[in-house]
Task: inverse folding
């Protein structure tokens, strides 16, 4: 186990900067998830920690060693790849024991470690098979097993679940979390799936265009997104954003609808803003949580409804923008129906329309 | 019902058609070979008969006996030719494979200046027929004393084989995901170990097939060898075939017998590696 520190780490290919001077400290045993859309530099960052990519600038520390110029084998970490990268010419047993064999451990030691890992991951009956004869989920577990036999300082996961089907993905997500609780190692996990990020992480690092946008616990980034990018990226369905102009403590939307500013927010008249409302905070009257002190009401025409059982997601139109709202204790809704929705204003966010920054700070 | 049985009939006819087509194609490919084998076992009279005798009346080993016999009985130094062929082919194949592996790996994995151009140039050398170079090579070898030596032939065959070997092996390394080597490096391997313990075994089948191509090219090559070998000390088996021609006669039977001897090692090798090819092709370490 070890801490990992990234200090002003940069990566550029020629004139193209892929990662711009990022700083990040990861505590011992912490599960950190790097998340962002594709091309945001998260995988590159991970590969720099692994030593598979050179660093164009800055410093990476694992424990208290600067590892900038160390080859991957001297960094004592383990990595699970998106395509698993199992050695196809070796059996599962050989795959698991490969790193120990390279380290010239005795056969008895290797067997013990491999059996232990196989036990944890329920791979024991598969030890003599080759990767070609395994299902996707089994390969995934072998890849994880290969990582844990080494007792590395840091585990690196590079989108390990994206090749699995939805059901298996949920299952493996739970297994990864359990594994982390059991082994307790430091983990850096890269994904583009915000649900994986929310469910697995101790801390989420949201990246975009080679910059870190926000770092925080899952609830922090969910409840206090620094800008519209984080607000719409984290959470499902994504946060609704309504553009309008401030006037007399109210926001005037393009169609003339006015919604009061959230409590505690003071903005100059004429300022262009975006009002951020999560689907959980805009619900039809009679199908919502008990109203709070700060409620606003709007009428919206429902365009589409998606019943999910315990709730229904309603797609409605407001000022030319599509708004997603939730309906608790759902009843059937026909498209075209106009409903009165309550908005929990104290849970809403206000963003600057130009910079996208959260003005509630 | 009628349409179902019609459908079945059409399917059967199609199958039969495929079978006949394949049979004809295989005939074209194999009959000359079978004819060679057949001729090596029967008397010259029968070989020369017009119209051709398809079913032999008697088979014997006369041509083989004569070939291995003394100089007076039409014998030739088969073993020496065989050894020459073997030394030259095996050595040139090994060298071509080593260079091909280094080159193919570099082309598959690394970016470097002039990569595309280098590759095109390498391939362009394949467009020049080897024989066209025989005179310049002859003159250079004459000056440097490489004429009529094993080393000379090995050099020529390495040059002949390397571009193709690089091209083939490049393709096979491209199919090996680069994550395998990365995983190996993280597992504690040096770059070198990652290559030999992971990438090489995975691409082994492809490398073996590149090896077969190189070996067969060297083993069967005639045009250049006939120019650059002069005596028993370096003549290869294809050139040895010429020993059966004299001013007025052609010893067809002897030629066929030697041809059969040439085919056998090539066949054995192909069979050995073919098995290996199939076993090696069971991929599956990455998603798929």
Result:
């Amino acid at each position: 186990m070890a801490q990992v520190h990234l200090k002003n780490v940069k990566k550029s290919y020629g004139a193209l900067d892929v990662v711009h001077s990022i700083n990040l400290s990861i505590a011992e045993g912490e599960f950190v998830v790097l998340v962002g859309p594709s091309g945001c530099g998260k995988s590159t960052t991970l590969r720099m920690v692994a030593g598979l990519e050179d660093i164009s600038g800055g410093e990476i520390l694992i424990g208290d060693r600067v590892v900038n110029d160390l080859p991957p084998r001297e960094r004592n970490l383990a990595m699970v790849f998106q395509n698993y990268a199992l050695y196809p010419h070796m059996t599962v047993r050989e795959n698991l024991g490969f790193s120990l064999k390279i380290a010239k451990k005795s056969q008895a030691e290797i067997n013990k470690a491999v059996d232990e890992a196989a036990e944890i991951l329920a791979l024991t009956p598969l030890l003599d098979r080759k990767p070609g004869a395994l299902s996707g989920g089994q390969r995934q577990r072998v890849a994880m097993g290969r990582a844990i036999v080494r007792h590395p300082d840091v585990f690196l996961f590079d989108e390990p679940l994206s090749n699995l089907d939805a059901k298996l993905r949920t299952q493996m997500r739970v297994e990864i979390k359990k594994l982390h609780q059991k082994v307790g190692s430091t983990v850096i996990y890269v994904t583009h799936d915000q649900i994986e990020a929310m469910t697995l992480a101790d801390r989420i690092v949201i990246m975009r265009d080679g910059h870190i946008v926000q770092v925080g616990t899952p609830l922090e980034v969910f409840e206090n997104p620094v800008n519209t990018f984080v607000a719409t990226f984290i959470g499902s369905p994504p946060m609704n954003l309504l553009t309008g102009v401030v006037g007399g403590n109210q926001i005037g939307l393009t169609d003339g609808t006015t919604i009061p500013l959230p409590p505690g927010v003071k903005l100059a008249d004429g300022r262009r803003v975006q009002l951020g409302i999560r689907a959980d905070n805009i619900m039809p009257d009679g199908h919502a949580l008990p109203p709070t002190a700060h409620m606003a009401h709007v009428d919206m025409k429902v365009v589409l409804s998606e019943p999910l059982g315990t709730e229904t997601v309603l797609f409605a139109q407001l000022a030319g923008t599509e708004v997603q709202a939730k309906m608790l204790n759902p009843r059937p809704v026909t498209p075209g129906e106009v409903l009165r929705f309550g908005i929990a204003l104290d849970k809403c966010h206000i963003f600057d329309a130009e910079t996208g920054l959260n003005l509630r700070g | 019902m009628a349409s179902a049985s019609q459908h079945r009939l059409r399917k059967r006819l199609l199958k039969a058609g495929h079978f006949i087509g394949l049979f004809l194609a295989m005939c074209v490919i194999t009959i000359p070979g079978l004819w060679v084998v057949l001729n090596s076992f029967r008397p010259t009279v029968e070989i020369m008969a017009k119209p051709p005798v398809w079913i032999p009346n008697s088979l014997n080993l006369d041509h083989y006996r004569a070939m291995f016999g003394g100089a007076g009985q039409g014998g030739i130094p088969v073993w020496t030719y065989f050894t020459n062929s073997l030394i030259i082919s095996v050595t040139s194949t090994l060298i071509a494979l080593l260079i091909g592996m280094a080159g193919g790996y570099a082309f598959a994995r690394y970016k470097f200046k002039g990569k595309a151009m280098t590759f095109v140039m390498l391939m362009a050398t394949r467009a020049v027929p080897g024989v066209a170079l025989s005179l310049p090579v002859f003159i250079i070898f004459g000056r440097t004393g490489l004429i009529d030596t094993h080393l000379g032939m090995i050099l020529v065959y390495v040059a002949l084989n390397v571009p193709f070997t690089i091209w083939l092996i490049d393709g096979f390394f491209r199919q090996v995901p680069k994550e395998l080597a990365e995983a190996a490096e993280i597992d504690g391997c040096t770059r070198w170990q990652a290559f030999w313990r992971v990438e090489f075994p995975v691409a082994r089948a492809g490398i073996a097939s590149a090896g077969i191509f190189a070996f067969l090219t060297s083993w069967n090559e005639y045009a250049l060898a006939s120019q650059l070998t002069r005596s028993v000390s370096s003549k290869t088996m294809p050139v040895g075939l010429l020993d059966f021609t004299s001013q007025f006669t052609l010893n067809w039977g002897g030629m066929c017998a030697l041809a059969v001897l040439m085919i056998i090692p090539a066949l054995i090798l192909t069979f050995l590696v073919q098995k290996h090819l199939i076993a090696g092709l069971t991929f599956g370490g990455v998603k798929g």
